[in-house]
Task: inverse folding
């Protein structure tokens, strides 16, 4: 299995390779999902690729953000540069960019980012059909689900995360940072709203619900650590083991990479390591929010780090007593040394932090103290007897890790040198390595008989062995000389440099890609249709009015109020089970006579095995369904069903829009992260749908915080989500509703309700084919009232009447669970 390490900058790259990574993933200054990292400029990327290739390692570059239309050609230019530099693969999120790359750079390996939310067999098969080399699977999959995917698609490479931070939401389905702070995770600028404190409330009480663990960081997962399960992962057929951490320091990269390298080497030698305590302790020391197995073993306990969203350190003992001066006595449970950093967890107030500058044990100064020792040191800040002490900085561990990022030692390649000299002829200097590569150069001047002492092996080794900043080191040296001969030392240095360049070129040549057969610059112009002439009566040709609801009663209310198209979510939001096939069939028959379209909407998440649940849809007389992930898209197309694409597919540019339309999508709901200016650049819009009203889903999670916070994490689900209405409140007072579905998945909704009623004319002037209301949480009366308002406004516009927006908006406010927002339609996202 490949060990894949992160690097947010050059030192971290060196740390990864020096500590045993087979491949490293990095990001450029643009189009990278970790814009907060140092990242690499174009020259640094070139150097990184060369540094890795000469050492027979790989470099993958993350281009894993959604691409705006104004950026698309720039993104292709950037990836073409990577192509010329012979990058080993690019990691991509944007579906349109992925499609474009398969068309214009077919030789370039593409890895589908975890941001594409690939979590089922059909999704992986779809990627394989598109020509993707590797799928980075969603972190929410269990080991058994991974096995099922690999068995079904044995030839596609699969990559999983084995260590590092976990997102609370499915990657690619999170709008929390975007809607709350204007910084989009899909655009690489996640503000980590999930790491902030929240209070849990229910509709039954005005005070926070008492939580079982007492922590306030209710959306903050512990860190993933699967080092103990590598043998099991190998048996699942995984190609690559990914360490998360492009925002982390080089020392973190060094320690974690080295730990997994040791474990993998032990596994590959058929001597599986049984004691992981030392490796885990080192990794805990460098950074942790506690460790968990994530979703891999389907365990719920220990998934959250609700009391602390940042580095916890390693427990090293307790306070025995503290004097007024700050002199503190500690009883150690682990080793402590000078320059280590510690933090005392106190019951009240700020936790004191100290770096050990002076330490005494038994009345004398010591540089190190062991488990069981009682030590004295100064700590500024109050601590009490019994307070726990954590080591947050291990000077020795991190010092060694830092050196590994500077020494360039493990990747050195041994070369043998042979020097042949004859009087009156140019000296021949040959470098050879054990892989069969050879470089041969000649001196500029012929060898001359030396006046005193000729060049001997010692002199030659001194000059030819000066390979410090190169990836090579001199091993054996052979001198074949006819007597005491000499060439100028400057020429010897020049010959060494030329030989190194020849070897370097020999190492890099196998990685080069063939020249492109197509002009990739023409792709965008040819694939995207020309702008259509604006319709004079665009506003009066009112768009289709569609709505998303969660149940049959709500659908009937929408139908009665005048909806043209009704999507019924089949995830069973807030219910024990979704709408039945029979009830959908009855509803479809009723709607047909009223010229209303009923569209079943498949859940965004359909893990392996769950797709079978929807075979009953084939019995319905309707032949169209709504799809929200690539797996359900393939599932529907394989069954000859027409599809409408939901906004969870993150359609952000013309290429993605037209790709979906060209493969048969009847309509495409555009990303709610687009603003009006970006919408104007999209075409065609007559088959596009935009959200104009409702609560947006900010997070979709596989983990239910209600079970974690209220108890009963294991065993049968107590269905807290159907017993009461819950919400979380942030420190600014904003409240975010919570819901579960029939598969116990967890949904977090926006604290504000989208409303574009008074911008309706502006929306319609774009030539939009459909405007959509999101009403997944609304009751039947609320649904009917909301649809009626929009129906009236559309009818009046169609008749040339100016609607009374103030009055209609007041009606909507009475039906709304929260105040209104226009989301990103004016502000856009970073």
Result:
């Amino acid at each position: 299995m490949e060990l894949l390490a992160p690097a947010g900058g050059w030192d971290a790259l060196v740390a990864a390779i020096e500590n045993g990574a087979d491949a490293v993933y990095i990001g450029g200054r643009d189009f990278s999902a970790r814009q907060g990292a140092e990242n690499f400029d174009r020259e640094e990327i070139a150097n990184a690729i060369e540094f890795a290739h000469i050492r027979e390692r790989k470099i993958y570059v993350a281009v894993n953000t959604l691409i705006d239309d104004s950026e698309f050609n720039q993104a292709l230019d950037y990836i073409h540069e990577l192509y010329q530099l012979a990058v080993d693969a690019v990691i991509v999120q944007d579906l349109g960019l992925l499609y474009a790359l398969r068309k214009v750079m077919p030789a370039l390996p593409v890895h589908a980012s975890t941001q594409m939310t690939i979590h089922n067999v059909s999704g992986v098969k779809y990627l394989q059909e598109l020509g993707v080399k590797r799928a980075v699977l969603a972190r929410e999959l269990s080991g058994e689900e991974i096995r099922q995917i690999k068995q079904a698609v044995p030839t596609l490479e699969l990559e999983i995360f084995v260590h590092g931070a976990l997102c609370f939401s499915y990657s690619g389905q999170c709008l929390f940072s975007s809607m709350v702070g204007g910084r989009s995770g899909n655009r690489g600028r996640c503000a980590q709203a999930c790491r902030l404190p929240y209070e849990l409330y229910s509709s039954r009480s005005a005070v926070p619900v008492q939580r079982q663990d007492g922590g306030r960081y209710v959306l903050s997962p512990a860190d993933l650590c699967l080092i103990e399960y590598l043998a099991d992962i190998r048996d699942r057929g995984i190609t690559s083991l990914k360490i998360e951490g492009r925002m982390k320091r080089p020392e973190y990269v060094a320690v974690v990479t080295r730990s997994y390298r040791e474990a993998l080497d032990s596994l590959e030698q058929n001597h599986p390591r049984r004691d992981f305590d030392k490796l885990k302790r080192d990794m805990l020391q460098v950074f942790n929010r506690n460790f968990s197995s994530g979703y891999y073993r389907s365990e719920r306990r220990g998934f959250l780090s609700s009391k602390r969203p940042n580095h916890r350190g390693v427990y090293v003992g307790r306070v025995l007593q503290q004097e007024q001066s700050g002199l503190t006595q500690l009883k150690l449970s682990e080793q402590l040394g000078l320059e280590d950093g510690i933090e005392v967890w106190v019951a009240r107030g700020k936790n004191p932090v100290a770096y050990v500058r002076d330490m005494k044990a038994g009345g004398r100064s010591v540089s190190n103290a062991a488990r069981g020792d009682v030590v004295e040191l100064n700590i500024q800040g109050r601590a009490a007897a019994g307070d726990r002490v954590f080591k947050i900085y291990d000077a020795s561990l991190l010092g060694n890790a830092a050196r590994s990022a500077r020494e360039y030692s493990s990747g050195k390649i041994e070369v043998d040198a042979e020097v042949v000299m004859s009087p009156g002829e140019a000296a021949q200097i040959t470098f050879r390595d054990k892989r069969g590569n050879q470089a041969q150069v000649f001196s500029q001047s012929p060898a001359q008989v030396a006046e005193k002492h000729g060049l001997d092996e010692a002199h030659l080794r001194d000059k030819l062995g000066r390979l410090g900043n190169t990836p090579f080191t001199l091993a054996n040296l052979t001198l074949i000389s006819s007597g005491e001969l000499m060439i100028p030392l400057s020429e010897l240095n020049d010959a060494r440099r030329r030989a190194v360049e020849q070897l370097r070129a020999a190492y890099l040549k196998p990685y080069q890609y063939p020249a492109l057969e197509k002009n990739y610059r023409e792709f965008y112009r040819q694939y995207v249709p020309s702008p259509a002439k604006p319709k004079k009566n665009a506003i009066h040709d009112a768009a289709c009015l569609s709505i998303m609801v969660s149940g049959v009663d709500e659908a009937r209310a929408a139908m009665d109020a005048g909806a043209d198209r009704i999507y019924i979510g089949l995830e069973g939001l807030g219910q024990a089970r979704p709408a039945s096939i029979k009830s959908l069939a009855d509803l479809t028959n009723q709607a047909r006579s009223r010229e209303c379209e009923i569209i079943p909407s498949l859940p965004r998440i359909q893990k392996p095995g769950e797709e079978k649940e929807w075979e009953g849809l084939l019995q319905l007389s309707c032949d169209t369904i709504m799809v929200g992930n690539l797996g359900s898209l393939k599932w529907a197309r394989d069954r000859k069903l027409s599809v409408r694409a939901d906004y969870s597919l993150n359609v952000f540019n013309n290429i993605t829009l037209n790709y979906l339309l060209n493969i048969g999508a009847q309509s495409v709901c555009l990303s709610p992260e687009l603003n009006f200016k970006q919408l104007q650049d999209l075409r065609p819009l007559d088959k596009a749908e935009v959200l104009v009203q409702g609560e947006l889903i900010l997070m979709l999670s596989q983990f239910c915080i209600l079970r974690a916070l209220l108890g009963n994490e294991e065993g049968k689900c107590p269905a807290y989500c159907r017993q009461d209405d819950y919400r979380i409140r942030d420190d600014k007072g904003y409240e975010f509703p919570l819901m579960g579905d029939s598969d116990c998945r967890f949904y977090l909704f926006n604290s504000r309700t989208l409303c574009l009623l008074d911008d309706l004319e502006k929306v319609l002037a774009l030539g939009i084919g459909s405007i959509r209301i999101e009403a997944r949480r609304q009751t039947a009366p609320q649904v009917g009232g909301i649809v009626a308002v929009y129906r009236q406004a559309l009818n009046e516009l169609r008749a040339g009447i100016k609607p009374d927006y103030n009055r209609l908006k007041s009606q909507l406010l009475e039906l709304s669970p929260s105040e209104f927002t226009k989301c990103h339609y004016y502000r856009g996202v970073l």
About this structure: The chain has 23 helices and 41 strands.
